[in-house]
Here is the input.
Amino acid sequence: MTSLPTSRLRDLPSVDRVLRTPLAAAAVERFGQQSTTRAIRDALEEVRAACRTGAAVPEPSDLAADALLRLKAAERPSLRPVFNLTGTVLHTNLGRALIADEALEAMRAAMSEAVALEFDIGTGRRGERDDHLRALICEFTGAEDATVVNNNAAAVLLVLNTLSLGREAVVSRGELIEIGGSFRMPDIMTRSGAKLVEVGTTNRTHPKDYLSAVGPATGVVFKVHTSNYRIDGFTAEVPARELSAIAKERGVPLVHDLGSGTLIDLAQYGLKHEPTVREAIADGADLVTFSGDKLLGGPQAGLIVGRKDLLAEVNRNPMKRALRLDKLRLAALEATLKLYRNPDRLVERLPTLRLLARPAADIAAQARRLAPVLSNILGDEFAVDVAECRSQVGSGALPLDTLPSAGLAVSHQSGSGQVLEALAAALRALPVPVIGRIERQALMLDLRCLEDEAGLAANLASFSPGGGGAVA
Ligand SMILES: *Cc1c(COP(=O)(O)O)cnc(C)c1O
Here is the structure.
């Protein structure tokens, strides 16, 4: 009746036999002989183990299908698109700002054609990379000069290394923040070669603290916009304008790390006012650093703006070469900045701003459309409710000023946290992973960042409770 395991193994088709199936031939056509053979071997290996514990011997075509699935899975990019339903618009772990179409097109051109990256078309001589962006950045910030590097962490590192290598960098204890991902201000300051001089206390720093610390050994007075936390209560900080007067009087440059560094007043879009780069320059900072892929809505980049003489020093620093921006992001940044020239259409063209400015009523209407779709897919055990929630800007910007939003709150009749974890895992296993957050006994899918509603619905159709979504 039942054959012995050894005889089952003998019945397993050979690699060659599987290779002769039409499905395997198609796999060879698409993925090549070598990869297909390896995938068939892997499939056979797994089946051999299963047969030892009593599983049936598969047909050659089943093995070929298994191999094809493996090949397709291996071909899928590791850096995959996901649906960001976390409610955090600038989610550092999900890639921060989404690029505008105009920036995407500029990147495509810069990638596929030769470009005048460091070439002056007028004279036919060598040009400068920064020439493409300098005037634009100055236009929107009121600064004298500008340059761009890999990210804002690099901007801080480069500026401090240029101005305070072997000298003192004076900073308030209340501003020695950790940004996340092991990026800590005191560490990067020390690594820049500056001697860190902390002044004041965690909650209060006064002008006299700076006045007693800034002297002949000081290379730079450093101010950090503590965008990612706020101290309430008995607090005091020296405003940039006042600190700038102190620095000027002592003949030391003031560097202001703005972090998010928006170019426009966000209050007009219903967000809280975040200091703009123009304001930081007007308040007397000699150099200002900020990110390209936070509120600016562009590619990853670090912008350094301010005094011409100081930027000349920054540009002479050999580290600049190691930290400079590549042509793709330069192209994207130029196109992104140009969108700011037409403020009337900015909210529609710049995805970051578009998502941040989305009215809660729109999001709620979308949630009402999607609730029955998701409910249908998940079945009776789960309740899918349209719920109000709060979105976050993210990337350390305005952490306490959440935005009214809406989404789908999925709960299970058992109230079990484990079931919700399993549901979250199954949603992440979809062809396009869906990322939500679990809070208050529900899996919350904040729809603020959902623009492709039909895409999400189609994606959800592949849902299977055990996860392991289908591979396209
Ligand atoms: C985010 C941030 C940084 C780091 O910027 P990246 O672009 O992520 O390198 C530095 N300083 C402040 C205040 C920030 O908020």
User: Anything to note?
Assistant: Confidence is low (pLDDT under 50) at residues 468-472.
